[in-house]
Write a structure and sequence with these properties.
Structural class of chain B: alpha/beta
Number of helices of chain A: 17
CATH topology of one domain in chain B: Rossmann fold
Shape of chain A: globular
CATH superfamily of one domain in chain B: P-loop containing nucleotide triphosphate hydrolases
Order of helices and strands of chain A: HHHHEEHHHEEHHHHHHHHHH
Number of strands of chain A: 4
Largest interface: A-B, 34 and 38 residues
Distance between the termini of chain A: 44 Å
Helix content of chain A: over 70%
Distance between the termini of chain B: 33 Å
Strand order of the largest sheet of chain A: 1-2
Oligomer: heterodimer
Strand order of the largest sheet of chain B: 8-9-10-5-11-12
Number of strands of chain B: 12
Number of domains of chain A: 2
CATH class of one domain in chain B: Alpha Beta
Helix content of chain B: 25-40%
CATH topology of the largest domain in chain A: ABC transporter involved in vitamin B12 uptake, BtuC
CATH class of the largest domain in chain A: Mainly Alpha
């Protein structure tokens, strides 16, 4: 849209000329400096907590992107894998059942159990496509949550699991928010590097090919079922890892953290950021998780402070309530953003190259029909003349 | 007739296939030898597409055997068969519409890992189809039917196949391009690749083929050398549009 105005074109050209690693370094630098700002007293600890949560979402968005963006399988129950990871850690590292396993053991176990859950859903459902797959995964997500809700002897049901032990890494107790922040950040970076390499590998190409045209991909020698299964399992593993870190940080989990709306939120992050684009979904996650917090602070604190208590009181009651209870409108605003986005920039904020091609034209297979006649007519003549 | 002595590259032995309870192929036998062009003729619903699917392993025979290079491959999955040297030019070509031509050709070499040799083969494909080279960075979906056909042939060649199976390669092409397509098939065959081609255009297909089979409601009713088939009265009446 924007490049038609002509104003954006030079700006865009400038940004596209900057090498990629510069962006990576800037983003990493920003991420690393958040706790430093907090320690210097520039920002409140609240923002550190928002940062940790955003990083967990970043990991979830990257994981979901593997199935949704790369392989083109819509998963509406993604939070189930996150729940499996969280509960694995919570059960095996809390006074609830008296277990206290090592951090590294639980990182691995959470990931592996989530992967096993992925295999469990993937095996019977991967024959399904589109809408059907979406419905089955949605059901799986709910079943998982309800299971944790009702399996009182182990999960303590709706009461949840409290007092999850703090992780100990190389003899170091991870306790302060800044320590947790860096811990999660390190794992986000590791996952991002792994997934970026995977995307560029033969496996990544096969996923893209399957998304483009499954039959053609099979004819190229790609074993569709096993590669799709691999994609589901890897994506589940990432969610399990995120779940483990989340449980450690939160120290308390219960089934309300794993509701359907969470899955939808992660789907929105992937769509907003750009399906199939790792930097894109990272941005999508930070925006969708961080922005509402910024807006809430703005309305409930910064604006009233700036306006002064008296001005605030003079505002109509409805406006005051809106300021104070902005949280209620959060999902509404997310919804509006997504609708606007899908209409005006369906490829996402930082789109993947291939996705942009898919979105930004009528189906070339349709176009082909009209073109074919024109071209073949020309060619036919040329061939006849020759 | 020394050919009968050697092992066929691809062989169907008394193959029967079913969709549910409906029998599609009824005790079918085919042989394709190394370096041959074999064409399969037949009307609608005669079992041509099922034959293709059975070669690829998408449909499994209920009884009988499919052999590749003398070994039974009934239970070998599609991707393995393609790795072993079968390539396809599928019906309607089925290129990846949003990938560029170069990317489409690279997908053809998906089963291979010998990067240097892939590059050489890519040059070879460009040599056969200069037009493909010209348009290599263009999206496949924006090509004309004739150009897509060339890319589809190129993609099939990229896997270094021993056999290419083609499903109606002339379908949807302008008449002038049809002859060109069959010439191309001949030149691909000249490089030593066996070709099994399903066609409606019986005249053109038999003109370049070594042997042919005629399929009718799941049974091979006529088979033999292509020249003999061209002369066959029954076949001429049924398929070549002569009263």
């Amino acid at each position: 849209m924007a490049d038609k105005t002509g104003i954006m074109t030079p700006v865009r050209q400038f940004f596209s000329r900057v090498p990629r690693w510069v962006y990576v370094l800037v983003a990493l630098g920003m991420a690393v400096s958040v706790p430093l700002f907090e320690q210097a007293g520039v920002i409140e600890t609240l923002w550190l907590r928002v940062g940790i949560r955003s990083l967990v979402y970043v990991m979830l968005a990257m994981g979901l992107n593997v199935v949704m963006g790369e392989t083109g399988l819509l998963n509406l129950g993604y939070v189930a894998f996150f729940a499996v990871g969280s509960y694995t850690t919570a059960i095996l590292s809390s006074p609830r059942l008296g277990h206290h396993y090592d951090f590294w053991v639980l990182i691995v176990l959470s990931t592996v159990f989530a992967m096993a859950a992925g295999l469990l859903v993937g095996l019977p459902t991967l024959r399904l496509r589109g809408d059907y797959l979406a419905i089955v995964t949605l059901a799986f997500g709910e079943i998982t949550r309800i299971t944790f809700n009702n399996w009182e002897s182990v999960t303590n049901g709706p009461g949840g699991i409290p007092q999850i032990f703090r992780p100990q890494i190389f003899g170091m107790n991870i306790d302060k928010p800044s320590e947790f922040y860096y811990l999660v950040l390190i794992f986000v970076v590791i996952v991002a590097i792994l997934l970026t390499n995977l995307k560029a590998s033969r496996i990544g190409r096969a996923w893209n090919a399957l998304r483009e045209d499954e039959i053609a991909a099979e004819h190229a020698g790609i074993h569709g079922t096993s590669l799709k299964l691999l994609s589901v399992v890897i994506s589940a593993g990432v969610a399990g890892l995120a779940g483990c870190l989340f449980a450690y940080y939160q120290q308390f989990i219960n089934p309300t953290y794993f509701e359907f709306l969470q899955s939808v939120l992660v789907v929105c992050m992937v769509v907003l950021g750009g399906m199939g684009s790792i930097p894109g979904v990272m941005l999508g996650a930070v925006l969708l998780d961080g922005l509402p917090e910024v807006i809430r602070q703005a309305f409930s604190k910064w604006l009233p402070e700036a306006l002064g208590a008296e001005t605030m009181n003079r505002l109509p009651q409805a406006v005051q309530t809106f300021f104070l209870e902005f949280d209620r409108y959060r999902m509404l605003i997310v919804g509006i953003v997504i609708v606007v986005m899908v209409i005006f920039r369906p490829e996402g904020l930082l789109p993947d190259k291939l996705w942009r091609r898919e979105v930004h034209e009528e189906d070339p297979r349709e176009m082909e029909k009209t073109r074919q006649k024109l071209f073949d007519f020309d060619e036919g003549h040329r061939d006849l003349e020759a | 007739m020394e050919r009968t002595q050697q092992t066929p590259l691809l062989e169907f032995r008394h193959v029967r296939t079913h969709y549910g309870r409906i029998e599609i192929l009824k005790d079918v036998n085919y042989k394709v030898f190394e370096g041959e062009i074999v064409c399969l003729l037949g009307g609608n619903a005669s079992g041509k597409s099922t034959t293709m699917k059975t070669i690829l392993g998408i449909v499994k025979p209920t009884t009988g055997e499919v052999l590749w290079d003398g070994e039974v491959i009934n239970n070998v999955r599609t991707s393995e068969r393609i790795k072993n040297g079968v390539a396809t030019v599928p019906e309607n070509r089925r290129l990846f519409p949003h990938l560029t031509i170069l990317e489409n050709l690279e997908m053809g070499a998906y089963t291979r890992t010998d990067t240097a040799a892939i590059k050489r083969d890519l040059e070879k494909v460009y040599e056969i189809f200069p037009r493909v080279h010209e348009r290599r960075s263009q999206r496949a979906g924006t090509l004309s039917g004739g150009e897509q056909q060339m890319v589809a042939f190129g993609r099939a060649l990229m896997s270094r196949p021993r056999l290419i199976i083609m499903d109606e390669p002339s379908m949807g092409l302008a008449p002038a391009l049809v002859d060109q397509t069959f010439e191309t098939i001949q030149s691909i065959n000249a490089q030593g690749v066996a070709i099994f081609v399903v066609e409606q255009n019986a005249n053109a297909a038999l003109a370049i083929a070594d042997r042919g089979y005629v399929l009718q409601t799941g049974q091979v009713v006529i088979e033999g050398a292509a020249q003999d088939l061209l002369k066959n009265e029954e076949l001429r009446r049924a398929y070549l549009g002569e009263a």
